[in-house]
Write a structure and sequence with these properties.
The chain is of the alpha+beta class and 792 residues long. The protein is 30% helix and 25% strand. Residues 638-718 form the S1 motif domain.
């Protein structure tokens, strides 16, 4: 028997064996090679395979197959401090990747990882791994500020200069710009196409080419524009999309009315913010002779103009949503449509999708119809005007809208009925403050206004919720493929943490982590409403919730305690709503098997992409808000403010001011004691003084830093409200050797991650020094380009 054949037999024998290791004698017996010559050949072959590392011996001298690392694929999320986490399954905890095990992966890369340490639930330690390979680079281009080299440096390096990325997670990288193509001026904000990624010895260096100069860093609005482009959000519509929008008529013709119910004689109004231009919902309410209420919700029929296979539809799908920023709106569809023929402007005919509901005095919808219509709104109302009518009883406003006042009073009645019904079934009510950042014409923040939600805002919310639920239930009962807005049951481990936290505050939560209902959770919120711990409970409960998303499957909406829910009411600014309208029109004409099969196949991708685009828009909005708040506070360094503790972490405490600005007091700034982090109560406790810091505690702080570039605001603690002290757990007390408190800002979204014990914790450290004598990679790349060699 040849050695090659024996090798195959040995490997096959091990794979078939029930034992993990075999002695030489057991292997010889399994392969029937016990004769002297055969046995000698077997020993030689095993020795050769050991050298080839296809076999190995254990400590007892038994032969076994070498350990084969199991590689798994995931998405790498990089922290600005160099370490990261890999998401393998959105439903499972992430895998921690130490700084020296990232293999130069960048944020968003699809990577293969090898699990080095498995998770230990009892020790509250997550899994740890290392990146083995990078399958796909997510970042193909970056937006950043260009720093120019002088003439001598350009001649020496073949580089125009370098770009510092605007994205916080990439800010420590430098993108060196090859001396070809566009040569920007110093301080330009540019888009760079990445041509070479980090490698060993040059962990923070990339190379690229400038593909577009967006503007100069000092141009008005450039800060926001940089964030938008860095997030990959398109800021302009392609020429062909604009051309297509211009071909849409700006008036309705008689042919547009075929198959539509004419509601132009009804008293219908829009109610929106004073600065809104894309008015996509209108409402009417009246009392019926039988004592029930009639609610009509009429939504702009955007899908009539943005047709299925059109370039307008393709662009709307790619964008997924409109993005609302401090000083601008980036629309999902061209403004000629969103502010024109699709906007339900007053006293002009507009095409709509209508959901009319008959609602009894208990809030039950006893009858409904969903159909295509044409309306002509009576008035363009604002939230403030409706609030002046219904809450403030302002005489001049009452007189101005005297013909509509009776309908608004009925609207308030119906809203209160619908709200009471939602509360009764257990919908969770998080009253969150909204802040509007006011800016001057140059984009500089001048003030931060808190938005109070009055009855005008709340009644529109009630009516939209009723229509969304009605449409979702209607098509679910027809068993037709549909797109839903879902909010799933909280994960068990998050609920358990919430139970533990509430219990530590003396609050009893009814239900179990697997069966708890929204109503049970709302009872907890109601129980603590006027107590000091209310902010704590609200914060922890919000953290326990899953993110709402779009899905082709109906899982209900946990937060609303709704069995059926979709988004029907905002097709100007949300693509799923546009799809809902398209499905309504399609199914009114054809419910055949071919149609159902087509949409069953298409909807999963639409739902998934729409959820991702929504997340992208939210990230951009939050980043802009953080930047503008830091800019607003920049000239207030040294000033003192009252605030409350909004979050407590092992590296410091976050403070929120009354204007919603949030900043941090680093742990190493609390020099009066050594503080222990008590995770199950989200508290810091001084070892010697037992001084305690908890969420919701009132403090007085001084602003010490506010940096719009990093979006970071730092505070110094001046005073803290005295609260009952907590005990430091015995096993948390330090040894006699004193350790200095450590701290440092982390990316807030990763603040709840648990670092594995005995692993390379994220820590400040210097970058590896470059090897002497080795040319920077970007020089060799530039030379390869000059000689026409293709780079790998």
């Amino acid at each position: 028997m040849e050695k090659k054949t024996i090798k195959a037999e040995i490997l096959a024998g091990f794979k078939a064996a029930t034992k993990k290791s075999l002695s030489m004698e057991e292997l010889a017996e399994a392969l029937d090679m016990r004769k002297s010559e055969d046995y000698k050949l077997l020993v030689q072959t095993v020795a050769q395979m050991e050298r080839e590392k296809t076999l190995e011996f254990n400590k007892k001298g038994r032969i076994k197959l070498p350990f084969q690392p199991i590689e798994v694929e995931g998405i790498f999320r990089r922290n600005e401090r160099g370490f990261g986490f890999v998401t393998i399954d959105p439903e499972e905890p992430d895998v921690f990747i130490p700084k020296d095990a990232t293999n130069f992966a960048m944020d968003g890369d699809i990577v293969m990882i090898d699990i080095q340490k498995t998770a230990d639930l009892f020790a509250d330690r997550g899994a740890e791994g290392q990146v083995v390979s990078i399958k796909e680079r997510k970042i193909q281009q970056l937006v950043g500020e260009f720093t120019a080299f002088d003439v001598d440096e350009i001649a020496e390096s073949d580089l125009f200069g370098y770009v510092t990325p605007k994205d916080k997670k990439s800010a420590q990288f430098k993108v060196f710009i090859a001396a070809e193509g566009i040569q920007p001026v110093d301080g330009s904000v540019v888009i760079v196409e990445i041509t070479h990624y980090p490698e060993k010895g040059y962990a923070t260096s990339l190379e690229g080419m400038v593909t577009k100069v967006i503007g100069h860093k000092n141009d008005p609005g450039m800060d926001i524009l940089s964030i938008v482009i860095a997030q990959g959000i398109p800021t302009q519509f392609p020429e062909e999309v604009q051309t297509a929008s211009e071909q849409v008529p700006d008036q309705i013709s008689e042919t547009d009315l075929v198959g539509r119910r004419d509601l132009r004689e009804q008293q219908i109004v829009t109610i929106d913010g004073a600065d809104a231009k894309d008015l996509d919902d209108a409402v009417t309410v009246r009392k019926l002779d039988n004592g029930n209420y009639f609610l009509g919700v009429h939504i702009a029929d955007v899908s009539y103009y943005v047709t299925e296979d059109s370039i307008l539809n393709k662009e709307a799908f790619e964008r997924g949503t409109s993005v609302y920023l401090t000083d601008r709106v980036i629309p999902m569809i061209p403004q000629r449509l969103s502010n024109g023929i699709c906007s339900l402007n007053p006293r002009v005919p507009r095409l709509t999708m209508s959901c009319e509901m008959e609602i009894d005095p208990s809030g039950t919808i006893v009858h409904h119809e969903i159909f295509q219509s044409v309306i002509q709104t009576t008035e363009r109302m604002t939230y403030s005007a409706v609030n002046e009518i219904l809450e403030e009883k302002k005489p001049e406003t009452l007189e101005r809208y005297q013909q509509l006042v009776p309908m608004f009073q009925l609207m308030k009645e119906l809203h209160q009925i619908l709200e009471a019904r939602r509360i009764q079934r257990g919908a969770i009510n998080f009253e969150d403050r909204e802040a509007k950042i006011l800016v001057d014409p140059e984009g500089r923040p001048t003030d931060i206004e808190l938005r109070e939600r009055g009855v005008g805002e709340r009644l529109i919310e009630s009516f939209m919720l009723a229509a969304n639920e009605t449409v979702a239930e209607h098509f679910n009962r027809l068993k037709l493929p549909f797109i839903y807005r879902i909010h799933e049951q909280p994960k068990e481990e998050k609920m358990q943490r919430f139970f533990d936290f509430a219990s530590a505050l003396g609050i009893v939560v009814k239900g179990t982590k697997t069966t708890i209902t929204p109503k049970d959770l709302q009872k907890v919120i109601d129980e603590v409403e006027d107590k000091p711990e209310a902010p704590v409970i609200n914060t922890m409960l919000l953290r326990s919730m899953q993110q709402a998303r779009y899905s082709e499957d109906n899982y209900g909406h946990y937060g609303l305690a709704a069995e059926y829910y979709t988004h029907f009411t905002s097709p100007i600014r949300r693509y799923p709503d546009l799809i809902v309208h398209r499905l309504i029109r399609t199914y009114s004409q054809d419910q055949g098997e071919a149609t159902k099969a087509k949409w069953a196949e298409a909807l999963p991708e639409i739902a998934d992409h729409s959820s991702k685009m929504e997340r992208r828009a939210v990230d951009a909005e939050r980043e802009v808000d953080s930047m503008k708040k830091a800019e607003y506070m920049a000239d207030k360094v040294g000033e003192e403010f009252d605030g409350i503790i909004s979050s407590v972490t092992k590296f410091g405490i976050f403070i929120e001011l009354p204007n919603t600005v949030e900043g941090m007091i680093h742990l190493n700034e609390l020099k009066q004691d050594y503080f222990h982090f008590i995770e199950n109560q989200l508290a810091l406790v001084g070892e010697r003084t037992r001084q305690t810091f908890k969420i919701g505690q009132k403090v007085r702080v001084k602003v010490t830093k506010s940096d719009p570039e990093t979006r970071e605001i730092d505070f110094e603690l001046l005073e803290a409200e005295e609260i009952p002290a907590l005990e430091v757990p015995g096993n948390s007390r330090r040894n006699n050797q004193r350790r200095k408190p450590t701290g440092g800002r982390k990316n807030n979204q990763n603040s709840n991650k648990n670092y594995p014990k005995n692993s390379d914790r994220p820590a400040a450290g210097k970058e590896k020094k470059k090897k002497k004598g080795k040319k920077p990679f970007y020089k060799s790349v530039a030379k390869k380009k000059k000689t026409g060699r293709k780079k790998g």
